[in-house]
Amino acid sequence: MPSALQVQTLRRVTIDEALDAVAKHPVRQVPSERLRISASLSGRVTASEILAPEDVPPFDRSSVDGFAVLERDLRAAPPGQPVRLHIAGEVRMGEAPPGPLASGNAIRVPTGGALPPGADAVVKIENCRESNGAVEISGARGAHDHVTRRGADVKRGDHLCRCGDILTPASLGMLAGAGIAEVPVFVRPRVALIVTGDELAPPGSQMRAGQIRDINWLSLDAALSAIGMAPQFVYVRDDKASLAQQLRESLEHGDAVVISGGSSVGERDYTPAVVAEAGSPGVIVHGVRARPGRPTMLGIVDERPVIGLPGNPVSALVMFELLGRPILQRLFGRSDKVIPVRAKLGAPLERDPDLERYVAVRLKMGDSGVEAEPLPGSSAQMHILGFADALVRVPQGSGSLAKGAPVDAVPLSKNNAL
What average pLDDT does the segment 18-46 reach? Predict the structure, then answer.
């Protein structure tokens, strides 16, 4: 359904202004599905809140190897004297304890074993000495701390996940421990990755004179996969009619479109015109006041995001991280921003009087904390992102950011939860 808002394309806006402009328009949320927790769910996004159906652990248990006892029996001994208790049985892993624990008795228990009813303390095995069916206990201070109570980890009814949470190996383990067999997750959005450029040659092919290797199809495919998308790659020649036809087909069968190349203002840069003609609201932003990536285009057609990235590989990937990633996360109903790493700048960075800059950095641990070391090179050199961990924003202005200045380093997708 077309947006009711009448759009005037914004030009030369900041990254934040671009995101705010797109956020005013609705985006169609992808449907959900229920999958077995044994499926490969790490990186998937939950489609509803998840409550714990049972307590974890489901019983009081021992956190050490030793003897389950009654704490009042330990206190009954004269100061400095050992406590002698009758060994009334043994707890085996995966089995119920052998009945309630009576005063004057002790029951042998392994780490993780279920405590018998009545037991409220566990004495570590190194503080015990067995003889003739009894155990002598000394040095039992803190024995009550060796009991893990029922529900100490998770209580029945606890909120384990919110709608829109990214599943991690740890959260999947938490859900499995709470007895959850199926998880509601959003379907991975189908994102058409349209790459344009007659000069591009795939890796491993024989290049003709004037051709260059195609980087964007692989780097953007990986970036989309890293944030939970299902990319569908297609190559289109530098021809307006071909691009328009492919865009129509991609919008009809998919949830979003990412176009690499053709977003600038050259004679063969057809992307903005094709998107404008595809539907409402069309092109929302064309051109950002940032480097690299000035010619980036952002649009929505019938509630489906369309992101036009520069053909330059570094510019394309930087703009995908800063603009494409947060916009596409709206397909899951998410609006979370990536949490930056607070670091100290490892070298000075010059400001640009006209543009905000985004500089690739490598993160390392220095003597006084995390350091963000700028990687030298231009936006035409892919190695600066190949070695990078994060991006640092250099605000528009005069002068420079000094070495040691505190900065926020925004992790690249390889380091994100997805």
Answer: 94
